[in-house]
Design a protein that fits this description.
With about 280 residues, this protein is an alpha/beta fold. It is about 35% helix and about 15% strand. Strands 1-2-7-8-6-4-5-3 form an 8-stranded mixed β-sheet, with helices on both faces. A hairpin with a 2-residue loop joins β7 and β8. The longest helix has 18 residues. It is globular, with a radius of gyration of 19 Å. Bound molecules: uracil. Uracil binds next to α4.
Length: about 280
């Protein structure tokens, strides 16, 4: 047994560092500057496109929605726009080798749930449990998402549709890279077009930034409606973040209540927290 003063081993240190980086990422930090002094000739430039102002939506003067990006779908993979069901889309994707994640996966994690769902949840990418089972959100974070859906919203997991931006697990759960997002994103867009949910919940920094093409911290985006392919999207914190920061569950519950109100669902009187 190690004494209280013995230094932590390398694996423990790495685990804590990974948790800390993940937490910073959830809070919106994208990376650390290499140097506080700009390189000679460097020009400060934001990569985020300019956002349109929030506009009120037609059916409720109280709700506002920020228009989202238009993500091109058709020319990337000819024939994708002809898929007319989720099964056809899954067949179209096939044993995908369109990006460098293909050799790392056990199973491609397409999505589960009601193909006509009113509500869709979009996460980041499969983790180890999801990769092993071929189903999104089945690990610890997935259990929390299931609790939000079932105990919080009073729905069943099979009432909603659940998927990720990226369909294959990045090695060591690293962040998906831009070329991987670009390769996989058309499939998410087609899933959205086919399910046509009334609302989408974007789970966590990565998914929301990848979808909306902005870098605004999730803590600022959450609680406000955005628009994606003509559908309203509510960003909120990722369930994995909530496992480390249970105090923020109340914020996610507030976001979920907004979604429930929009869908015309009864809000439980003594809510306050889904889990
Ligand atoms: N985290 C995600 O973003 N998606 C999953 O499917 C599991 C964990």
């Amino acid at each position: 047994m190690s004494s209280p003063s013995s230094p932590p081993d390398r694996a423990t240190l790495l685990e804590s560092l990974r948790d800390y980086v993940e937490q910073l990422r959830e809070e919106g930090l994208e990376g650390l500057p290499a140097s506080t002094t700009p390189a000679p000739g460097a020009i400060a430039k934001s990569t985020a496109p300019e956002r349109a102002p929030r506009v009120p939506i037609a059916d409720s003067p109280k709700l506002e929605v920020t228009p989202g990006p238009s993500i091109e779908l058709i020319s990337k993979y000819p024939g994708l726009e002809k898929t007319s069901t989720l099964e056809e889309l899954r067949d179209f994707i096939g044993e995908c080798t369109r990006c460098k994640l293909a050799p790392c996966r056990t199973n491609l994690v397409f999505g589960v749930g009601n193909p006509n769902a009113q509500l869709m949840f979009v996460g980041e990418a499969p983790g180890a449990d999801e990769d092993a089972r071929g189903e999104p959100f089945v690990g610890r974070a997935g259990q929390l998402l299931t609790d939000i859906i079932e105990r919080g919203m009073g729905l069943s997991r099979s009432d909603v549709y659940i998927c990720n931006v990226i369909k294959c697990r990045p090695p060591d759960n690293r962040n998906p890279e831009p070329d991987e997002v670009a390769a996989c994103e058309p499939f998410l867009m087609r899933q959205i077009d086919l399910v046509q949910p009334r609302a989408i919940v974007g789970l966590g920094t990565f998914a929301v930034h990848a979808i909306l093409k902005i870098k605004t911290p999730i803590s600022k985006l959450r609680g406000h409606w955005h628009e994606l392919r003509g559908i309203r999207m509510m960003p909120t914190f990722h369930p994995a973040y909530l496992l480390r920061n249970p105090g923020d569950k109340r914020l996610v519950w507030a976001d979920i209540q907004e979604v429930m109100k929009f869908l015309g669902m009864p809000i439980p009187r003594r809510g306050g927290s889904a889990t």
